Amino acid sequence: MVGPVRPTLGAYYSGMLERIRRPGGDITPVLSDRKLDPTRQQATCWSGTLTGYRGPMVPDRYTLAGSDVSIPPLGVGTWAWGDRSTWGMGGYDTNLTLDSIQEAWEASIDAGVTLFDTAEIYGRGESERIIGTMLAHDPQRAKSGVVASKFMPFPWKLEVRGALLKSLQASLSRLGLPAVDLYQIHGPISLRSHAALADALAAAHEAGLVKAVGVSNYSVSGTRSMAKELRARGMQLATNQIEFSLLRRSPETSGLLAACAELGVLPIAYSPIGQGRLTGKYSESRPPPGKRNQSKHPMAIVDGVVAELRSIGNKYGGKLPSQVALNWVMAKGVVPIPGAKNRHQAEENAGALGWAIDDEDLARLDRVALSGVRSLQGRIWQHG
Question: How many Å apart are CA 213 and CA 227, to the nearest integer?
């Protein structure tokens, strides 16, 4: 007898998966049994897991703690938009242009991938300016767009409240927005206390300039501390953005993902396909170009991970290695934000939605996943 088949959201639930928040702050998906296919077992959903099915369920949307902002389970990281040194815009990558970015923007939103994550330091503000142009020139798509940005807390910014508000106002000017949906502390490098950083975020929120607040690269203890300080100011920590992928599984094995789930903090994954290493287009004989220093394992080792991704992808109708890698991240309760330089990449990313690998294949990927690469810069920058 064949056991129950794990459903896809689009085919069987027609948007019936909703998000509610429990009094303790946990983000909890609730599944309505309306329009449930009668050939399938009726199930209830709790913390992302469907009873009677073979793997964790990925919700249609996540609602960010302390706000009414909702985001899809997949977003777009826009580090490359306007960046020359790492991603080659205006340099080695002559195909990365404003026109190709426009196509990526359109294809992403049309596929339901509406979260765009940027930062004041991406391209020295150029990423934000590009997004601002897209928002202004494409008002119809802009209605569904969700924009996240970040404040860089350099150690010399000792008057952190004023520095954050000044940076935020500059970001909003480049974006052409009155408020940003999610504003994040970019890294744990400030010399000021978590209390001082929480005061700065609270001031931005009270001024109506941000709707939800988060951190990035924070450890378990740092996340707990920031959540505590924000609660003391009547706010909630919504997100922790971390490098998480099959090439850097350490946020899961360290207990960070579990701590986030306990606190009601949504993890967001940057570099979820290892800066392109998990797409299958690079290899030991053809390494990635530019200064792509994250997840920089020897490509001979990465090739083994990609081979497993290809094998699993064939089982699901020919899914690409990158799509399987993104699906693995989403199955962990994490929102991946891969980059997209053009329409083709945006459409490939969106192909990670609407299906799900089962527990057996999750375990296969867990076995080949790498812990990560610990560089000196990473030790300073990546606590989570």
Answer: 10
* Tokens of residue 56, six digits: 């964790």
What distance in Å separates the CA atoms of residue 112 and residue 109, rounded to the nearest whole number? 5
Distance CA 61, CA 214 (A): 18
Neighbours of 315 (CB within 10 A): 13
Does pLDDT of 358 surpass 50?
yes
Decide if pLDDT at 79 tops 80: yes
3-class secondary structure for the chain?
Answer: CCCCCCCCHHHHCCCCEEEEECCCCCEEEEECCCCCCCCCCCCCEECCEECCCCCECCCCCEECCCCCCEECCCEEECCCCCCCCCCCECCCECCCCHHHHHHHHHHHHHCCCCEEECCCCHHHHHHHHHHHHHHHHCHHHHCCCEEEEEECCCCCCCCHHHHHHHHHHHHHHHHCCCCEEEEEECCCCCCCCHHHHHHHHHHHHHCCCEEEEEEECCCHHHHHHHHHHHHCCCCCEEEEEEECECCECHHHHCCHHHHHHHHCCEEEEECCCHHHCCCCCCCCCCCCCCCCCCCCCCHHHHHHHHHHHHHHHHHCCCCCHHHHHHHHHHHCCCEECCECCCHHHHHHHHCCCCCCCCHHHHHHHHHHCCCCCCCHHHHHHCCC
What are φ and ψ of residue 339, in 5° steps? Answer: -75, 160
pLDDT digits (tens, 9 = 90+) for 323-351: 999 999 999 999 999 999 999 999 999 99
For domain 64-381, give its CATH number from 3.10.450.50, 3.40.50.1240, 3.40.50.150, 3.20.20.100.
3.20.20.100
- Residue ranges per structural domain of the chain: 9-50, 64-381
CA-CA distances (angstroms) from residue 302 to 3, 237, 276, 329, 372? 34, 34, 11, 17, 11
Which residues are identified as catalytic?
Answer: 122
